[in-house]
What we know:
5-stranded antiparallel β-sheet, 2 helices, 36% strand, Immunoglobulin-like, 222 residues, single chain, 7-stranded antiparallel β-sheet, mainly beta, elongated
Amino acid sequence: MRKFCLASLFVLSCGLNAVVTQAAPAEIASTKESFKPPSEVASAAKPKTTLRASGALIQSVENNVWFDTIDISFESDLNNNGFYHGLYVRFDADTNYTAVPVYAHFALKRPGAPEVIIHTSSVFTLRGTSAEDWFAIESELLHSLPPAYYDLVIRIYDADYNDLLAEISGFDEPALAELPLEDLSYDKPQVVVVEEDGGSLGWLSILALAALGLTRRKVRAV
């Protein structure tokens, strides 16, 4: 199965904490979250010594929190049309604060259509510039997403006050733009049905086989 990767993937260790969100009727995707336990993140956290002047990722909103790295991959293209219904996203965000509790929105947007939120995360904690406070989702897209090239939008909010702290999308970063996706209802293997004409030639063939059968029975009876 072909995978399209925009960046290298990380190996998730057995020490991570996983939370599975079952897809409710109103949800677009069934999503599994992955992140390290807060105790492990805290023990590996590095103190923030200087304010960030600029970074590798361009983003539209940055309020003492910013995206440091983002990794994306696709999987599950059942009908081999180049569009996938499985999406994996992992990001590491940093902050000027020692620690800040946050949650994230993950959304998809295509031209001429409204933005669709595929997942709202549980609360997790960013700790300075630690590389251990990464957050990842693995989503199976279920409905409302026809085959198209989507922009991924990620927003990070303050968990205490719901203030928008950081936002990044395909408009800012080309790596998040034009993702080839579709939901599971569109990703069905193609079935080809071959119909044969049952005209006069077909009836003649049947009569010929019947006559051959009678002949064979007569020969065996002798």
